[in-house]
Write a structure and sequence with these properties.
alpha/beta; Rossmann fold; Alpha-Beta Plaits; 2 domains; four-stranded antiparallel sheet; 11 helices; 14 strands; globular; binds adenosine-5'-triphosphate
Length: 333
């Protein structure tokens, strides 16, 4: 039996636009018919730019939102007609600050949620101790959550999501705002969970994280599935492509389109690493070196260093998403 099956899954939202005088009703097509299957025990990644429909997809799979079209099953149970059976078998962890009681200790948070999730009273103590150990919070469990770091909160979120021993765990951007060392610990924990047999569906904006963790990845953009495969399969989309990165500041849409129009250039996108911008240009290997033309197109911006490197999953992602007509590029880890 499959852990997750999405069959032409669709969700539209009614919205109102315009002022109160000229209010008009229209629809947002958040998810436009997505199909995929996740076998048990797989660590499956869902990637896509902001607004692609990832959270909407997850919310339909974990019964928080009803599909407006298509269907989905989790461990054989239909999300629309058997939500209770689905909920009993899944855990849901979302990044950020919501979902924990700051004034309570980690222990009291877990006791509260254990009660809420119907964990047998005689099992609770043992289960909570086991999870605190798993997420590396043993010894800190009596401290109030308000004093916890982001990474500790995230680990507590995961412990909360695992209380009732879910067979399928949904992790929506677990490492958002978490420092690199804590993020590495989180990744190790997620990998251990999957190795122990839990099916994990993960969304992330960090390509290195997806590359390291995921058995398979689905890329969605504008509500549709753009690519599905192992990280290696996705990278093969850009085999024969060379990547050039040029440091610059103030790259505007005009210059970006000029670079995209250069001969031999497959795609170009801007990456912001917090200090400076990098123009990432993918071009055909073996074709004439595009660097002089790219530098000329950045005329007036005083471009800095140039780096040349092998294509990564992030480059494949950019190529896939650009092909979908969406030029958004997420900041990478
Ligand atoms: N309740 C809602 N009402 C109206 N539109 C919505 C609602 N929820 C989501 N949308 C729209 O649906 C689209 C997909 O949103 P969704 O949150 O699923 O994207 P996402 O891929 O999770 O994005 P992000 O990476 O920014 O979290 C967006 O255009 C969003 O504005």
């Amino acid at each position: 039996m499959l852990a997750i099956e999405a069959d032409n899954l669709t969700r539209t939202f009614p919205i109102r636009t315009g002022g109160w005088l000229r209010a008009r009703r229209s629809e947002v097509h958040a998810v436009r018919g997505i199909s995929f299957e996740v076998p048990k025990g797989e660590l499956f990644g869902l990637l896509g730019p902001n607004g692609a429909g990832k959270t909407t997809t997850i919310k339909m799979l974990n019964t928080l939102l009803l599909p407006t079209g298509g269907s989905a099953r989790v461990l054989g149970h239909d999300v629309a007609t058997e939500p209770v059976a689905v909920r009993r078998r899944i855990g849901y962890v979302f990044g950020g600050d919501r979902g924990l009681y700051d004034r309570l200790s980690a222990l009291d948070n877990l006791r509260y949620f254990a009660e809420l999730y119907g964990v047998e009273p005689r099992e609770q103590r043992h289960r909570i101790a086991e999870l605190l150990d798993l997420v590396g919070l043993s010894g800190r469990e009596k401290e109030r959550v308000e004093g916890y770091s982001r990474g500790m909160r995230q680990r507590l979120h995961i412990a909360r999501g695992l209380l009732h021993r879910p067979e399928v765990l949904f992790l929506d951007e677990p490492s958002i705002g978490v420092d690199p060392v804590a993020a590495r610990d989180l990744r190790r924990m997620v990998a251990d969970l999957a190795a122990a047999g839990t099916t994990v569906l993960l969304t992330t904006h960090y390509m290195a994280e997806a590359d390291e963790l995921c058995d398979r990845i689905a890329v969605i953009a504008q509500g549709t599935l753009q690519a599905l495969g192992t990280p290696a399969e996705l990278k093969s989309v850009i085999s024969g492509v060379g990547v050039l990165e040029i440091e610059a500041c103030g790259i505007d849409d005009g210059r970006l389109s000029a670079v995209r129009g250069l001969p031999g250039v497959h795609s170009a996108a801007v990456r912001d690493d917090g200090r400076t911008q990098w123009l990432t240009v993918q071009s055909a290997d073996g074709a004439a070196d595009p660097e002089p033309d790219v530098r000329a197109a950045l005329d007036g911006l005083r471009p800095g260093r140039t780096l040349r490197r092998e294509p990564t999953l992030e480059d494949a992602y950019v190529a896939i998403v650009s092909r979908a007509g969406d030029e958004t590029m997420e900041p990478a880890a």
